[in-house]
Design brief:
- Helix content is about 20%, strand content about 20%.
- The protein is of the alpha+beta class.
Amino acid sequence: MADKKFLGTGMKFPPQIDPATGRFITVSGNKAVKESLYLILMTQTTERLVRPDFGSEIMTYTFMDTGTTMMSIFKRNIMETILSQEPRISDVDVEMEYRENQGAIIVSINYLVASTNTRDNLVFPFYLDRGQEAETEEGVESEGYYDGDYDDSMMESDEYFIDTDDRKRG
């Protein structure tokens, strides 16, 4: 297997400590690119004081109308944000599917890691109602996106849905 150090190594998101070493868990290669995309999308612009242009505006689409025009604007916004902020990828294709019964839009982002010519994808639910809680097993950490091959039958249940509101709830 070719050396993929040029894709970088970074801290796992959300930050986690390795119980064996006491150090932060890191990711590298294509997993680092995928986590970078998720971090870009889940960070509001102006949220970071040092880099106010970092992040996206997708949270402004919460409670949006799910008509064709708004979905097209939402899709274009995601594509432009990714292409402008993640230089390791190209050829971005965003597909969306509105799931009325879950109150969410399934966002599937297919992209090409330019330096390795490898295709990958990121699938995550965008909840239109920020107050909706995701049903996850108690004590299980969740990444906020589905990491694996996308299968429509898997998304029929709520178990794969993760809330896009990344703030801690008390």
